[in-house]
């Protein structure tokens, strides 16, 4: 995201963040703009610190209230019929619990795959590691990578993945993609289920992509503070 938009990232960002928790109706049609309770920031006072770390506004990490308000009013109000959510506080707390429950970075690193802006990782390799860990299929989305051409790729050796130099190829320019999102699909009871094969059709990842470093030097731009949060 931040390779295409001006961002003001937390310099300590070293992990995935929450993009959203979105209600859908079969066949995975996103529900949004539901009526209901307006956003009240004071309802989140006890989890504000956790949200600031796990669900920051990437365009202005020092003040994420606007992002939370947007997500609640566009998507969150469509989830309150679920008794496991029910309220605004329940929506954000459930989102945090899902992030804590599924530590994607820890799983990948246990198999030798680390964020690295100089290396390509195979889409099959990446999804296989997650599917083996969670016994369900995730969806991936990618965006155009703006950076130096990768010099290495990951190969599987035994049970782990290792980097090796890329072999010299033709001068044919291929547009490199980078991972933008890992999508988990959930049941109404907030349990994992397989994502449909076509769920990530929009901005779908190619057979190989860059799993870029968090807070890559080209990701963050200084943005003047536009006022109080």
From TrEMBL:
<dbReference type="Pfam" id="PF00445">
    <property type="entry name" value="Ribonuclease_T2"/>
</dbReference>
<dbReference type="GO" id="GO:0005576">
    <property type="term" value="C:extracellular region"/>
</dbReference>
<dbReference type="GO" id="GO:0006401">
    <property type="term" value="P:RNA catabolic process"/>
</dbReference>
<dbReference type="GO" id="GO:0016787">
    <property type="term" value="F:hydrolase activity"/>
</dbReference>
<keyword id="KW-0456">Lyase</keyword>
<protein>
    <submittedName>
        <fullName>Uncharacterized protein</fullName>
    </submittedName>
</protein>
<dbReference type="GO" id="GO:0033897">
    <property type="term" value="F:ribonuclease T2 activity"/>
</dbReference>
<dbReference type="InterPro" id="IPR036430">
    <property type="entry name" value="RNase_T2-like_sf"/>
</dbReference>
<keyword id="KW-0378">Hydrolase</keyword>
<dbReference type="InterPro" id="IPR001568">
    <property type="entry name" value="RNase_T2-like"/>
</dbReference>
<dbReference type="GO" id="GO:0003723">
    <property type="term" value="F:RNA binding"/>
</dbReference>
<comment type="similarity">
    <text>Belongs to the RNase T2 family.</text>
</comment>
């Amino acid at each position: 995201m931040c390779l295409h938009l001006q961002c003001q990232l937390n310099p300590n960002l070293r992990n995935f963040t929450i993009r959203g928790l979105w209600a859908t109706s079969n066949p995975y049609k996103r529900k949004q703009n539901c009526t209901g309770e307006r956003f009240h920031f004071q309802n989140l006072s006890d989890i504000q610190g956790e949200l600031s770390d796990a669900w920051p506004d990437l365009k202005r990490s020092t003040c994420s209230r606007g992002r939370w308000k947007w997500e609640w009013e566009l998507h969150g109000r469509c989830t309150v019929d679920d008794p496991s959510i029910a309220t605004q506080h329940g929506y954000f707390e459930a989102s945090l619990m899902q992030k804590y429950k599924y530590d994607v970075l820890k799983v990948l690193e246990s198999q030798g795959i680390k964020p690295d802006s100089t290396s390509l990782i195979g889409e099959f390799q990446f999804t296989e590691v997650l599917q083996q860990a969670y016994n369900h299929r995730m969806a991936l989305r990618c965006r155009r990578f703006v950076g130096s051409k990768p010099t290495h790729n990951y190969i599987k050796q035994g049970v782990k993945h290792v980097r090796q130099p890329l072999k010299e190829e033709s001068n044919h320019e291929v547009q490199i993609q980078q991972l933008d999102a890992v999508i988990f699909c959930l049941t109404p009871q907030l349990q994992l289920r397989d994502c449909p094969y076509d769920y990530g059709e929009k901005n779908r990842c190619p057979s190989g992509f860059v799993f870029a470093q968090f807070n890559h030097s080209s990701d963050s731009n200084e943005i003047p503070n536009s006022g109080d949060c």
